């Protein structure tokens, strides 16, 4: 494990892990709720690309596409993707965890581990932005999942 890790807050969600997982991988609906990853294109098949559209760090409202590759799809608990060979001198992998906490409850958190020659530099330049984005996603996922779960009358 790299020492260059960004970790989100952990949120507890009042909905079952399977339901939260379904919200997490419902990529066509990301524009409705996700403030950090505003669009995703993927097959969810191991080894295939996952194109993540993110807002630029400057707050201008512009976006860019970050291509990564799916490595773990283990519903309803674990999703992992990494940069593969897309970025010379840097290798990053992101893990998203949905952990059951009992009937109708779970937690969510995400981490991004930066490795390679430029890992420290990338983390110094983008770490705070990534952390803020991850925290925003955690809070937004909690809100979205709980609202949808409540709307189902559960």
Automatic annotation (TrEMBL):
TM spans (from-to): none
Annotated CDD domains: SRPBCC_4
InterPro entries for the chain: Polyketide_cyclase/dehydratase, START-like_dom_sf
Top-rank taxon: Bacteria
Record-given protein name: SRPBCC domain-containing protein
Organism: Amycolatopsis samaneae
């Amino acid at each position: 494990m790299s020492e260059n890790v960004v970790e989100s807050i952990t949120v507890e969600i009042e909905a079952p892990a399977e339901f939260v997982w379904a919200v997490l991988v419902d990529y066509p609906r990301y524009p409705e709720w996700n403030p950090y990853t505003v669009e995703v294109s993927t097959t969810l098949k191991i080894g295939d690309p996952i194109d993540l559209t993110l807002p630029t760090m400057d707050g201008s409202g512009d976006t860019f596409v970050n291509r990564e590759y799916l490595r773990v799809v283990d519903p309803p608990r674990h999703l992992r993707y990494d940069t593969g060979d897309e970025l010379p001198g840097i290798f990053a992998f992101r893990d998203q965890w949905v952990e059951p906490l009992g009937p109708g409850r779970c937690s969510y958190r995400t981490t991004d581990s930066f490795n390679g020659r430029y890992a420290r530099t990338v983390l110094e330049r983008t770490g705070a932005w990534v952390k803020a984005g991850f925290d925003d996603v955690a809070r937004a996922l909690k809100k979205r999942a709980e609202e949808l779960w409540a709307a189902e009358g559960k």
